[in-house]
TrEMBL record:
Peptidase M16 C-terminal domain sequence ranges: 197-375
Secretion signal, residue range per the UniProt entry: 1-23
All residue ranges annotated as the Peptidase M16 N-terminal domain in the record: 52-173
GO MF annotation terms: metal ion binding
Keywords: Signal
Domain of life from the UniProt record: Bacteria
Origin species: Daejeonella rubra
Statement: the UniProt record of this protein carries the keyword Manganese: no
SUPFAM superfamilies named in the record: LuxS/MPP-like metallohydrolase
Protein name: Predicted Zn-dependent peptidase
Keyword Lyase: no
InterPro entries: Metalloenz_LuxS/M16, MPP/UQCRC_Complex, Pept_M16_N, Peptidase_M16_C
Length: 467
């Protein structure tokens, strides 16, 4: 028996030593699985990716119908996306819910800053039941008036509740502060004053003007036969008519960057904390340095062991957490450092934050730190695209932002190729240092004098409508 164990141990050791992947701790780079892409005559782009490991199918569809198209009716895109599920020409809202619940399928609709998204997940055997419902939700919604009124009241209630917590609304204030009059400043959820005025006819008009096959895409990933699914999608969506209007691409208009350091102070009279963002303009999603920026930001504020979190939480105890992030959009983007602290420690927290940012620019980081960040980023990357739902979302993101599978397939090599010299260039180019923008939410009486140290101060009250 002992001899047998020794032999097994020897075999295992030999296997480990002889396996390059294990010995070098370098897992194979993730590659985008094969897929088929085609377009229907009406302009709808379709992605089909067979994945037979699990008997499930996931769908992700994206439509150019986000908050940037709200015009003066803030929150309309969001309500319209929700309204897709109020019922269709063949299915009431109740019938949709009952049909999907009975087979354990799900279907979700929502709007973001730039687009509206429809997602669904269901067992492969139920495709013939779910796909017609999905098609009607996208193509033939009726926007039931009673269901609309219920949803509008829910949205109004959630908008009132949101301002009780600064962290729920600080990003909406930030977008308005940074983007100004640009359509990227439009808050996705709207405001009580705008939402209160909506009627179901507003949703119908928004749908008519913005929902159509042109400029839209649908990705289907999972356990199916590509040839059969292609025929099914052509039958279902081939008759989707183009919208009558041509959208104005307002998002493509240039964003005017701030010319001076500024402070937006949002008064919350009962605040015991100061919640703040510091930053400025960021990057577009198609930025060629996207991967390098992610690695550098990992060091600075993108993970729990980042410089920001170490200095503000671990070493000084000024906050429970601090981070930095880029929010890239199709034509612009923002960068911000975010954290919160007790009112009495507002000044030292801001000062410590700026010191860490100054250190990033003044000294950069060493090879050991860069290697750690690279390993972290590479380790976090594959889990983003493990499931059919994640892959379907990836395909529609590739469509929307105009990148192809080379971004995924070359990700690991692009991370590995980042040098210290190049990281320094990335820091200087993309991480703002001058003309910083500050957004503080707290009790104005206690922190106004602090805010004034960092730029011209504009004051708002959190109870006021909008952002």
């Amino acid at each position: 028996m002992k001899k047998f164990i020794r032999n097994i141990s020897a075999v295992l050791i030999a296997f480990i030593l002889c396996s390059p992947a294990i010995a070098q701790n370098t897992p194979a780079a993730f590659k985008v699985p094969a897929y088929e892409k085609f377009s229907l005559p009406n302009g709808l782009t379709v992605y089909l990716m067979e994945q037979h490991e699990v008997p499930l199918i996931s769908v992700s569809a994206i439509v150019p119908a986000g908050a940037i198209y709200d015009a003066e009716k803030s929150g309309l895109a969001n309500l319209t996306a929700a309204g897709l599920q109020y019922g269709t020409k063949s299915y009431s809202k109740t019938k949709i819910e009952e049909a999907l619940d009975f087979i354990g399928a799900d279907l979700n609709t929502f709007a973001s800053k730039e687009s509206a998204t429809i997602t669904s997940k269901f067992a492969a055997k139920d495709a013939e039941k779910v796909l017609p419902i999905l098609k009607e939700v996208m193509v033939d919604p009726v926007f039931d008036k009673d269901e609309f009124e219920k949803e509008r009241k829910r949205v109004l209630s959630s908008l009132e509740q949101a301002k009780l917590s600064p962290r729920n609304v600080i990003n909406a204030y930030w977008d308005k502060f940074i983007y100004g009059s640009h359509v990227y400043a439009n808050p996705v959820n709207g405001s009580p004053v705008t939402v209160e005025k909506f009627s179901v006819d507003d949703l119908k008009t928004f749908y008519k003007n913005n929902y159509g096959p042109q400029g839209s895409a649908i990705a289907i990933v999972g356990d199916f036969n590509t040839k059969m699914m292609k025929a099914r999608i052509i039958t279902l969506f081939g008759g989707w008519k183009k919208t009558g209007l041509s959208q104005n691409n307002l998002a493509a208009q240039a964003v005017s960057p701030p010319q001076t350091a500024r402070v937006l102070l949002v008064n919350k009279e009962d605040a015991r904390e100061t919640t703040f963002l510091i930053g400025g303009m960021g990057i577009r999603r198609d930025n060629p340095d996207f991967v390098a920026i992610e690695v550098v930001n990992t060091v600075f504020g993108g993970r729990f062991t980042s410089w920001l979190n170490d200095e503000l939480r671990v070493n000084s105890g000024l906050t429970y957490g601090a981070r930095s992030s880029f929010v890239p959009l199709k034509y612009s983007g923002t960068f911000s450092i975010s954290t919160f602290t007790a009112v009495k420690t507002t000044l030292p927290t801001i000062e410590k934050t700026l010191q860490v940012l100054d250190s990033l620019h003044a000294t950069g980081f060493d090879e050991k730190t860069l290697a750690s960040a690279k390993n972290y980023v590479k380790g976090q990357f594959p889990p983003r695209y493990e499931t059919a739902g994640q892959l379907a979302g990836l395909l529609t993101q590739m469509f929307w932002y105009g990148f192809n599978e080379s971004f995924i397939n070359n990700f690991q090599s692009n991370v590995d190729g980042l040098t210290l010299a190049r990281s320094k260039e990335v820091i200087n180019k993309y991480f703002p240092k001058d003309k910083l923008q500050f957004l503080l939410i707290g009790k104005s009486e206690d922190i106004k004098s602090i805010a004034a140290k960092y730029g011209e101060v504009t004051e708002k009250d959190i109870k006021a409508d909008g952002f």
